[in-house]
# Entry
Amino acid sequence: MKLSQYISNFSSWVIAWFIATLCSTCFPVSASNIGIADLPDSMLTEDKVYELTFSDPNMAKSIIDEMRRRKLLPEHELDFIEGDLLVNNHYFDEAAVLYLEALESDSVKSDPNTRMSLLHRMITCYDGIHDDRNTTKYVKLLLDEARKNHNKPMESIALFNMGKLSYYQEDEDLAYKLMYEAIDMMKRSDYAYKYDNLRYDYNTLAIMLQRDERYEEAYNALLGLESVVTASTEAEPEIRNLSRKELKTLYAQQAIILHKLGRDEEADKAYAKWKTAAPEYTADDYIIAPYLANSGRADEAIKIYTDYENTLRQRGDTISYHMRSMLRSMGVTCYRIGRYKSAAEYFLRLANVTDSLKVREQNSSAQELATAYDTHRKETELIKRSNSLRLRNAWLVGTVAALILLLVLMSRQMRHTRLIKKKNMALVENIQDLLAYKSELDRLKQLLPQHETEEYDRQASESTGTMSNYEIDNHHIFERLDRQINNEQLFLNPDLTRDDLLRIAHTDKNRLAKIMQQHEFANTSDYINRKRLEYAATQLNSHPEYTINAIAESCGLPNVPTFNRLFRKNFGMTPTEFRKATKEQSHSYASTHYE
# Structure
């Protein structure tokens, strides 16, 4: 098979990577831990590499090494093949180096289709290492290249990834608009590998919709996935067991979403299909765990999560997004069934893993990748440019101009900083007064038995005629609800929903909405988030050693961008600004008191 016959087929390897991300089943593959085997000629084909991608990645790597040694294909084609194998096994940094090498090939530069396929691969790599800046860069490059060459399938791929980036930036409306547009564009194309791309698109869309509790739309996305999950083309290299893994994942997602929709009988049928689909393949069983936990089989869910944790540990995958997701799920599941000590332990471990991931991101793996590549390929060119007299003179002129501009900006910035500092100090005082007032109010409420409070309110209203019995009942419902939520700190549960509040309040959704508007001037979501943010403010004040990520997790808002946005909306400043202003206020008070 020539390169042109499989170059556009990367989407099938992307869906393979997507399933591998969900299932975490790949064995470690790297250039450092696999030797070159003495293989027969019949094994030395690119088709054989893709066939063994999941079932025997070590052998696949040995085949590539032997093909390089015998020079059976040009180097840039072998870079393609090895890069795909590394992507499917989560070695995104190493794969990106190979793809960058291939991009420098004259053969690739002269072939727009090959170049677009490589840009698609680069998007996958940077998305895999959570580098949004470089992901955005290559999405734009692919979109420009696709439109320039009137390539609708590649334009669809670029639009879908642009939608994902918009989703990560919390612009859900734009995100879904772009993703649906991309799917429609791919469906109308005659692209030979459109079904492979549609599998990936529907999978991603269903997960995002489920995360946003848009379960009807998520289920429709799964129906779209079901229509293409077994489809394939004769031209694509076979990846052994991929279709069965996809089908098992589909049934697990169906069971979860159908249960969320209250269609329990259909959910049970999907679960029964899941149990019979590829029973020998158990490494991705953790996907079904949320369904088990929500359908009253928490012990089974905990066992699956425990097995998954052991698998991650055996792979040495202890500081990763997979481990973070598992710890959070275990913490929530234990909390729901009353194992509060175990839940606390998992949430503590979750905070530690989150902190470690933050440190790792700050080390910027993407920058290390760029440095390694530039050192390997462009060292001579960089030295020559650095010695250029023209560039040196331009640098000197630019430096002088920059220094002058910097002095002006520093003067303005210092003035602006002083103003912001005063504003933040005032905001902190207001926030602390508000928290102190609410704390004292809650304490006083606790001192008076609930039935005495209700009788006092009723007698007071009858004497003044200020409230009807209906309004008094609403007031009592709210007080009981608010008391229970505060006493049990239910708002710390990130999965707390309006339905939970309805069960606690023993009322219907219309009346609850009126009660919330009457007492909080807000809806149920704003009411719960307000309590979370007030709790977060106390944590920021009393625990300066906690990271923002850990506090966001602890208060029930694990999505840090969302946490920052809501904190600013409610308090007029970000959590970081609040913490800094609180610290400065404390130092100012200590200094004044000492003097």
